[in-house]
Amino acid sequence: MSRGFFISLEGGEGVGKSTQLRLLADALRARGIEVVTTREPGGTAGAEAIRALLLSNEGEGWGARAEALLFAAARADHVEKLIRPALESGAWVICDRFVDSSRAYQGGGSGLSDADVMALHAIGSEGLLPDKTLLLTAGSDVATQRLALRDGDNADRIGGRSAGYHASVAAAFRRFAQDDPQRFCVIPAEGTPDEVHEQVIAALIGLLSA
């Protein structure tokens, strides 16, 4: 049995990752492909428990290094118990965020080095990377409007951080895509969900025909 493909959807807050994950999963299943959808942090019982710790607005929160360690621990459990077994069974795995979010949020946004984040990933998840990373981008005005509709005044601990923090995150994502154009595909996400979905499918034609 051939290994499945691993697809991650990345981007800042409010770019439509969840919507595009659902549309992509539906399209792949319509082609007869077995699909596993998941998210980070989360995807397993242990990782979901860590997610609650990370995103809750209660308490004092976590320092940048503690936060990076928690994300790496959640990902290690996620990779070991869900992602690798699904890929080995031949399924496609589509994940809402993966290690590039740690690189952007804990690295670009919180000031840790990319080398530190990737060292944690090498230990926890044996350096697993997606076969293709779809980076959804949208202007800050569009993203802010979408977030207001989605969250109202109930943003989580990370989503509610400053505009400057999120600008640093966006810049980090752009840098990753420039440095690794073979894995990343940048998709402008300001159109309708169906328009963006067409670009997503076009980005995956190479894998679909493999």
Q: In words, what does this structure look like?
A:
The chain is α/β, with parallel strands linked by helices. The protein has nine helices and five strands; from the N terminus they run βαβααβααβααβαα. It has a five-stranded parallel beta sheet with strand order 2-3-1-4-5, sandwiched between helices. Helix 3 crosses helix 5 (114-125) and helix 4 runs antiparallel to helix 5 (114-125). It is globular. The two termini are 14 Å apart.
Could you tell me the number of beta strands?
5
Biggest β-sheet: strands ordered side by side in the sheet:
2-3-1-4-5
Give the CA-CA distance, first to last residue. Answer: 14 Å
Average pLDDT, all residues:
89
Determine Rg (CA atoms, Å). Answer: 16 Å
SSE string: EHEHHEHHEHHEHH
Largest sheet: 5 strands, parallel
Shape: globular
Helix content: 55-70%
The stretches of 5 or more residues where confidence is low (pLDDT under 50) are none
Number of discrete helical segments: 9
- The share of residues in extended strands comes to 5-15%
SSE-based structural type = alpha/beta
